[in-house]
Design a protein that fits this description.
Largest sheet: 7 strands, antiparallel
Order of helices and strands: HEEEEHEHEEHHH
Distance between the termini: 22 Å
CATH topology: VC0802-like
Number of strands: 7
Structural class: alpha+beta
CATH superfamily: VC0802-like
Radius of gyration: 18 Å
CATH class: Alpha Beta
Strand content: 15-25%
C-alpha cells in the first residue's frame, strides 16, 4: 500500500491514537551491546552513543539512567516517507501550546513522544503519576499556560482539532464550489489554521530532518 503524500488528506485523516505505557529515552556507549532484558521500541546510533526508547519499567529494572518520560501518540494515517510538510504542520500546533515533542517517522506512520503531563486534559492518571514519583518537573511554560483562564492545552486534543479543522475546511470548499483553495500548513493551539505559517518545528527523527 502506497503512503499518502497530499498534505490536506494527511491532516484530514490524521487519527491520533494514544499508546499505553510510559516511555523514556536512554543512551548506552556506541560499542556496548543492548542488554538482553531490554526490548527497545526504537534504537538510533549516534557517534556519542546508542539511543534507546524503552518502557519506563524496563529502564528501572536494568538500572539505566533516562530522560524525557513520555507518552506515545501514533498518527495512524499511512503517510508516505517523502510527504512534505506533514510533521511541520502537526508539531507547529503543539509548539504554539508550549508542548515539546520528539517525532519519529517509521515506514507506515509518524509517531510523537510527548511529555506525560501534556498528553490529554482528561488523562489525570499520567499527571498524578508524574507528581507522585517526580519523573519530570513542570516547566515554567507549562505553569504559565496552566494559569491561563482557558487552562493549558494538551497534545491529544490539539491533534484531534487538526483533523476536525481540516475536515471542516474541506466541506466548506466543496460547498462553495471553489476550484482551488490554499492548503493549510499548520494549526495553532486554538484549533484555527493560519495559512503559510513558517515550518518552525524540527523533529528529532523524521522527514523534516532529512533522515
Amino acid at each position: 500500500m502506497t503512503g499518502e503524500c497530499d498534505l490536506a488528506a494527511l491532516l484530514r485523516h490524521i487519527k491520533p491514537e494514544l499508546r499505553p505505557g510510559i516511555f523514556v529515552f536512554c543512551t548506552i556507549p556506541a560499542n556496548e551491546s543492548i542488554p538482553a532484558a531490554i526490548s527497545p521500541l526504537l534504537t538510533f546510533r549516534e557517534q556519542e552513543g546508542t539511543t534507546l526508547v524503552i518502557p519506563h519499567e524496563e529502564a528501572e529494572a536494568a538500572g539505566l539512567g533516562y530522560a524525557f518520560a513520555s507518552r506515545l501518540i501514533t498518527l495512524t494515517v499511512h503517510s508516505a516517507l517523502d510527504a512534505v510538510g506533514f510533521l511541520a504542520a502537526v508539531t507547529s500546533g503543539l509548539a504554539e501550546a508550549g508542548i515539546s515533542v520528539n517525532a519519529v517517522s517509521a515506514f507506515h506512520h509518524d509517531h510523537l513522544f510527548v511529555p506525560v503531563d501534556r498528553v490529554d486534559e482528561s488523562d489525570g492518571g499520567s499527571t498524578r503519576a508524574v507528581s507522585r514519583v517526580g519523573w519530570v518537573e513542570r516547566s515554567e511554560t507549562h505553569q504559565a499556560l496552566s494559569g491561563r483562564e482557558d487552562g493549558f492545552r494538551c497534545a491529544l486534543p490539539i491533534l484531534q482539532s487538526v483533523q476536525s479543522a481540516t475536515a471542516i475546511a474541506s466541506i466548506s470548499i466543496s460547498h462553495s464550489g471553489a476550484a482551488s483553495a490554499e492548503t493549510p500548513t499548520s494549526v495553532d493551539a486554538g484549533g484555527s489554521m493560519p495559512s503559510k505559517k513558517a515550518e518552525r518545528a524540527l523533529p528529532m527523527i523524521g522527514r523534516s530532518s532529512g533522515l
